[in-house]
Amino acid sequence: MSNSDSQSDLRNQVRNHVLMTLRKIIRAIDMHSRYLVANHGLTGPQAVILSEILNCEKITGAQLGKRVHLSKGTISGIVARLESKGLVERRRSQTDRRRFWLSATPQARTLLENAPPLLQQAFVRKFDQLPDYEQTAMLTTLLRIADMMGAEDIDAAPLLGSGDLLPDDDALEAEDSDQ
Protein backbone atom coordinates (compact mmCIF):
# COMPACT_ATOMS: atom_id res chain seq x y z
CA MET A 1 0.00 0.00 0.00
CA SER A 2 1.41 3.38 -0.96
CA ASN A 3 1.81 6.31 1.40
CA SER A 4 -0.93 8.17 -0.47
CA ASP A 5 -3.35 5.24 -0.03
CA SER A 6 -2.59 5.15 3.71
CA GLN A 7 -3.29 8.85 4.03
CA SER A 8 -6.52 8.45 2.09
CA ASP A 9 -7.64 5.57 4.32
CA LEU A 10 -6.80 7.56 7.43
CA ARG A 11 -8.71 10.61 6.16
CA ASN A 12 -11.73 8.39 5.40
CA GLN A 13 -11.59 6.85 8.87
CA VAL A 14 -11.35 10.27 10.53
CA ARG A 15 -14.21 11.66 8.41
CA ASN A 16 -16.41 8.64 9.19
CA HIS A 17 -15.62 8.92 12.89
CA VAL A 18 -16.55 12.64 12.86
CA LEU A 19 -19.84 11.86 11.09
CA MET A 20 -20.65 9.03 13.52
CA THR A 21 -19.88 11.28 16.48
CA LEU A 22 -22.16 14.01 15.11
CA ARG A 23 -24.89 11.41 14.66
CA LYS A 24 -24.44 10.24 18.28
CA ILE A 25 -24.84 13.83 19.50
CA ILE A 26 -27.97 14.30 17.39
CA ARG A 27 -29.42 11.00 18.64
CA ALA A 28 -28.69 11.83 22.29
CA ILE A 29 -30.50 15.15 21.93
CA ASP A 30 -33.40 13.51 20.08
CA MET A 31 -33.75 10.69 22.62
CA HIS A 32 -33.73 13.11 25.55
CA SER A 33 -36.26 15.33 23.82
CA ARG A 34 -38.56 12.37 23.17
CA TYR A 35 -38.24 11.35 26.81
CA LEU A 36 -39.20 14.85 27.98
CA VAL A 37 -42.23 14.93 25.69
CA ALA A 38 -43.38 11.40 26.56
CA ASN A 39 -42.96 11.74 30.32
CA HIS A 40 -43.48 15.45 30.98
CA GLY A 41 -45.29 16.83 27.94
CA LEU A 42 -42.58 19.41 27.20
CA THR A 43 -39.93 19.75 24.54
CA GLY A 44 -36.45 20.94 25.50
CA PRO A 45 -37.06 24.44 24.08
CA GLN A 46 -40.42 24.65 25.88
CA ALA A 47 -38.71 23.67 29.15
CA VAL A 48 -36.03 26.33 28.66
CA ILE A 49 -38.59 29.04 27.82
CA LEU A 50 -40.79 28.05 30.74
CA SER A 51 -37.80 28.00 33.09
CA GLU A 52 -36.77 31.48 31.94
CA ILE A 53 -40.30 32.80 32.50
CA LEU A 54 -40.29 31.31 36.00
CA ASN A 55 -36.87 32.80 36.73
CA CYS A 56 -38.10 36.28 35.79
CA GLU A 57 -41.60 35.96 37.30
CA LYS A 58 -42.90 38.25 34.54
CA ILE A 59 -41.29 39.11 31.24
CA THR A 60 -42.29 40.36 27.80
CA GLY A 61 -41.88 38.22 24.71
CA ALA A 62 -39.19 40.56 23.37
CA GLN A 63 -37.22 40.36 26.63
CA LEU A 64 -37.60 36.59 26.64
CA GLY A 65 -36.35 36.33 23.07
CA LYS A 66 -33.23 38.31 23.96
CA ARG A 67 -32.54 36.20 27.04
CA VAL A 68 -32.78 32.87 25.20
CA HIS A 69 -31.52 34.10 21.81
CA LEU A 70 -34.61 33.19 19.79
CA SER A 71 -36.63 35.23 17.32
CA LYS A 72 -40.00 36.76 18.19
CA GLY A 73 -41.72 34.28 15.87
CA THR A 74 -40.12 31.27 17.53
CA ILE A 75 -40.89 32.63 21.01
CA SER A 76 -44.48 33.38 20.01
CA GLY A 77 -45.10 29.83 18.82
CA ILE A 78 -43.58 28.21 21.89
CA VAL A 79 -45.40 30.56 24.27
CA ALA A 80 -48.72 29.87 22.48
CA ARG A 81 -48.22 26.12 23.00
CA LEU A 82 -47.31 26.65 26.66
CA GLU A 83 -50.34 28.90 27.10
CA SER A 84 -52.64 26.27 25.56
CA LYS A 85 -51.29 23.75 28.10
CA GLY A 86 -52.13 26.12 30.96
CA LEU A 87 -48.47 26.70 31.83
CA VAL A 88 -48.14 30.35 30.82
CA GLU A 89 -50.47 33.34 31.13
CA ARG A 90 -50.36 36.53 29.06
CA ARG A 91 -51.48 39.76 30.72
CA ARG A 92 -51.80 43.08 28.94
CA SER A 93 -49.61 45.81 30.42
CA GLN A 94 -51.52 48.49 32.33
CA THR A 95 -49.18 51.21 31.09
CA ASP A 96 -48.65 50.14 27.46
CA ARG A 97 -51.61 48.36 25.87
CA ARG A 98 -49.37 46.99 23.10
CA ARG A 99 -47.24 45.06 25.60
CA PHE A 100 -48.07 41.71 27.17
CA TRP A 101 -46.45 40.31 30.28
CA LEU A 102 -45.81 36.57 30.40
CA SER A 103 -45.92 34.69 33.66
CA ALA A 104 -45.82 31.03 34.58
CA THR A 105 -48.70 29.32 36.33
CA PRO A 106 -48.34 27.28 39.53
CA GLN A 107 -48.85 24.20 37.33
CA ALA A 108 -45.69 25.18 35.40
CA ARG A 109 -43.59 25.35 38.58
CA THR A 110 -44.84 21.92 39.67
CA LEU A 111 -44.13 20.46 36.23
CA LEU A 112 -40.56 21.78 36.16
CA GLU A 113 -39.88 20.69 39.73
CA ASN A 114 -40.71 17.14 38.66
CA ALA A 115 -38.96 17.22 35.28
CA PRO A 116 -35.52 15.67 34.86
CA PRO A 117 -32.50 17.91 34.35
CA LEU A 118 -31.98 19.08 30.81
CA LEU A 119 -29.41 17.20 28.78
CA GLN A 120 -26.99 20.11 28.77
CA GLN A 121 -26.53 20.23 32.53
CA ALA A 122 -24.03 17.33 32.62
CA PHE A 123 -22.30 18.79 29.57
CA VAL A 124 -21.96 22.21 31.21
CA ARG A 125 -20.46 20.74 34.38
CA LYS A 126 -17.81 18.91 32.34
CA PHE A 127 -17.25 21.79 29.92
CA ASP A 128 -16.68 24.26 32.76
CA GLN A 129 -13.89 22.00 34.09
CA LEU A 130 -11.94 22.24 30.82
CA PRO A 131 -9.11 24.75 30.50
CA ASP A 132 -9.94 27.93 28.58
CA TYR A 133 -7.89 26.89 25.55
CA GLU A 134 -9.85 23.62 25.21
CA GLN A 135 -13.18 25.45 25.52
CA THR A 136 -12.08 27.88 22.83
CA ALA A 137 -10.87 25.05 20.58
CA MET A 138 -14.22 23.29 20.94
CA LEU A 139 -16.09 26.47 20.09
CA THR A 140 -13.92 27.07 17.03
CA THR A 141 -14.47 23.52 15.80
CA LEU A 142 -18.23 23.66 16.38
CA LEU A 143 -18.49 26.99 14.56
CA ARG A 144 -16.63 25.45 11.62
CA ILE A 145 -18.94 22.41 11.65
CA ALA A 146 -22.04 24.64 11.75
CA ASP A 147 -20.65 26.59 8.79
CA MET A 148 -19.86 23.39 6.85
CA MET A 149 -23.40 22.16 7.44
CA GLY A 150 -24.95 25.48 6.41
CA ALA A 151 -26.32 25.94 9.92
CA GLU A 152 -24.57 29.17 10.91
CA ASP A 153 -27.73 31.28 10.45
CA ILE A 154 -30.24 28.90 12.03
CA ASP A 155 -32.15 30.36 14.98
CA ALA A 156 -31.16 28.47 18.14
CA ALA A 157 -31.45 28.97 21.87
CA PRO A 158 -28.47 28.26 24.10
CA LEU A 159 -29.96 24.96 25.17
CA LEU A 160 -26.53 23.93 26.22
CA GLY A 161 -26.43 26.82 28.68
CA SER A 162 -25.91 26.33 32.36
CA GLY A 163 -28.43 26.29 35.15
CA ASP A 164 -31.19 24.16 36.53
CA LEU A 165 -34.73 24.40 35.25
CA LEU A 166 -35.66 26.06 38.52
CA PRO A 167 -33.09 28.26 40.24
CA ASP A 168 -32.32 27.73 43.89
CA ASP A 169 -33.54 30.36 46.35
CA ASP A 170 -30.03 31.84 46.79
CA ALA A 171 -29.76 32.49 43.03
CA LEU A 172 -33.15 34.21 43.01
CA GLU A 173 -32.20 36.40 45.97
CA ALA A 174 -28.90 37.37 44.32
CA GLU A 175 -30.70 38.24 41.07
CA ASP A 176 -33.28 40.29 42.98
CA SER A 177 -30.56 42.27 44.77
CA ASP A 178 -28.92 43.08 41.41
CA GLN A 179 -32.09 44.77 40.17
Give the topology.
Elements: H1 3-40, H2 44-56, H3 61-68, H4 72-84, E1 88-92, E2 100-104, H5 106-114, H6 120-129, H7 132-148, H8 169-178
Antiparallel strand pairs: 1-2
Helix pairs in contact: 2-4, 3-4
What this model shows, in words?
The protein is mostly helical and 179 residues long. The chain has a single domain (41-178), classed as Winged helix-like DNA-binding domain superfamily/Winged helix DNA-binding domain (Arc Repressor Mutant, subunit A, Orthogonal Bundle). The protein is built from eight helices and two strands, in the order ααααββαααα. The protein has helices at 3-40, 44-56, 61-68, 72-84, 106-114, 120-129, 132-148, 169-178; strands spanning 88-92, 100-104. A two-stranded antiparallel sheet has the order 1-2. A hairpin with a 7-residue loop joins β1 and β2. α2 (44-56) packs across α4 (72-84) and α3 (61-68) crosses α4 (72-84). It is elongated. GO terms for molecular function: DNA binding; DNA-binding transcription factor activity. Residues 15-147 form the HTH marR-type domain. Pfam families: MarR_2. It comes from Magnetofaba australis IT-1.
